[in-house]
Amino acid sequence: MFAYVIRRFFYAIPILIGVNVLTFSLFFIVNPTDDIARMHLGQKHVTEEAIEKWKHERGYDKPLFYNESQSGLSSITETIFYKKSVRLFVFDFGYADDGRSIGKDILERMWPSLAIAIPVFLVGILVNISFALLLVFFRSTYIDVWGVIFTVVLMSISTLFYIIGGQYLIGKIMQLVPISGYDSGLSGFKFLVLPVLIGVVGGIGSSTRWYRTIFLEEIGKDYVRTARAKGLSELTVLFRHVLKNAMIPILTGVVVIIPLLFMGSLLLESFFGVPGLGSYTIDAIQSQDFAIVRSMVFLGSVLYIFGLLLTDISYTMVDPRVRLN
Question: Please, which residues have CB within 8 angstroms of residue 301's CB and are 6 or more apart in sequence?
């Protein structure tokens, strides 16, 4: 298994390098540093002196890939590519355009994101799988039909409707929880109830239908008919056999999401005023702080690739035959 994990890890390295190079090209080749300076300064008539000053203060006045004015290793290290792209591989995110430490901001903002994302993730899995198993148990009945209609309706409703409707009904009319805001510690629980509830409800439709499809595919196989022929109850067949054998497709969707929890939810954090990584990214885009945007794109790529690696490892635990591939 160790050799399998190492092999998968080395497969991920070229992908991460490719994403890094592509991101760098989009930010600095397609969009030159002079244009970045003009967008950030936001003035109609920007002087060349102001542009050069802005670039010098942020290290954008260096060559892209090779510095002819330097000798030896400095000809490579004293470049924008090394300073702004290569150093990301050691998680040196540098500083934002306003001088703040990006790494420090990430460490501070990851906790509010996790405070919302982890409950949404855990409660969502429990609710969605349970609901899907319920529909499969009553398959081809009115419960199944109306359950599918209900999930389709939930899928058809925009997440914005859940957010705005939840804020208005639960926060303003019923006044059960605050509409927005955040606080650390136990006092922050009241601020998390509504976004967690909306996050779970918003994912019921698509996730339940997906799990239901997986379970229906498994329940028609020969081993299920054999289990029934041995006298096992339908509940035992569902939980002991169908759920167990459906774990690989379930893990495909579940494990990949785990690292992305770190990144937070853009909509939930923005509408509920939660100072997480999602709102951090939105604020950076609005303020045209490309240093933060580049860092978040790279961090998201690392976490996504890490999620794929976790998926491969989880496959080997559920089905050891995967190790041979």
Answer: 16, 19, 20, 23
Lowest mean pLDDT among 13-17, 33-37, 220-224, 235-239: 33-37
Question: What's the confidence (pLDDT) of residue 96?
Answer: 82
Closest CA to 54 of 98, 105, 100: 98
Same domain, 68 and 120: no
- The owner of tokens 């409703």 is 157
Instruction: Write the DSSP assignment of 74-128 as a string of letters.
Output: HHHHSSHHHHHTGGGGGT---B-TTS-BHHHHHHHHHHHHHHHHHHHHHHHHHHH
Share of the chain above pLDDT 90, in %: 5
Q: Give the mean model confidence (pLDDT) for residues 284-293.
A: 80
Using alpha carbons, list the distances in angstroms from residue 55 to 35, 37, 39, 41, 47: 11, 7, 12, 11, 13
User: Which of 279, 283, 284 minimizes the C-alpha distance to 263?
Assistant: 279
- pLDDT above 80 (res 169): yes
Q: Is the pTM of this model over 0.85?
A: no
Is residue 35 domain-resident? yes
Q: What is the mean pLDDT of residues 227-244?
A: 82
Give every CB contact of residue 291 below 8 A, 6+ residues apart in sequence: 58, 84, 93, 94, 95, 96, 97, 102
Do 52 and 167 lie in one domain? The reply is no
90, 123, 142 - which closes a domain: 90
Which pair of tokens denotes residue 256? 């990949």
Query: Which residues make Cβ contacts (< 8 Å) with residue 18, sequence separation at least 6?
Result: none
Is residue 95 included in any domain, yes or no?
A: no
**Highest mean pLDDT: which of 1-10, 26-35, 232-241?**
232-241
What is the domain extent for residue 271?
Answer: 103-324
Q: Exposed, middle or buried by CB within 10 Å (0-12, 13-18, 19+), for 156? A: exposed
Whether 126 maps to a domain, the answer reads yes
Structure tokens at 221: 């196989």
Number of neighbours of residue 80 by Cβ within 10 angstroms: 20
SS3 content of the chain, % helix, strand, coil (to 5): 75, 0, 25
